[in-house]
Design brief:
The chain has helices spanning 9-17, 23-29, 31-41, 47-58, 67-85. It has 5 helices and no strands.
């Protein structure tokens, strides 16, 4: 995965720790669910990881992701993480 946009060796290691090895895995499981799993295992993970995953799927740098897509991702991630609290 480190050859995929936005995913460096450290991110790749974190993803491998939760069973994510390919961009196909990311697409199959979904970026929000993967972010949720990462956040539960590594609470200091930032939203940049969420954007990086989405950018990998969209084949673009995470900073190029449109604001409306970012806002949608944030809302979905927040909802997914709140489900874990309740």
């Amino acid at each position: 995965m480190s050859r995929i946009k936005n995913i460096g060796p450290k991110s790749e290691s974190w993803l491998n720790d939760i069973g994510i090895f390919t961009v196909d895995d990311v697409e199959a499981i979904g970026v929000v669910e993967i972010y949720r799993r990462l956040k539960l295992s590594r609470p200091t993970i930032s939203l940049v990881m969420l954007y990086a995953l989405q950018g990998a799927v969209m084949d673009m740098h995470w900073q190029e992701i449109p604001n409306d897509v970012r806002e949608d991702l944030i809302a979905k991630a927040k909802a997914a993480l709140e489900e874990d609290v309740t």
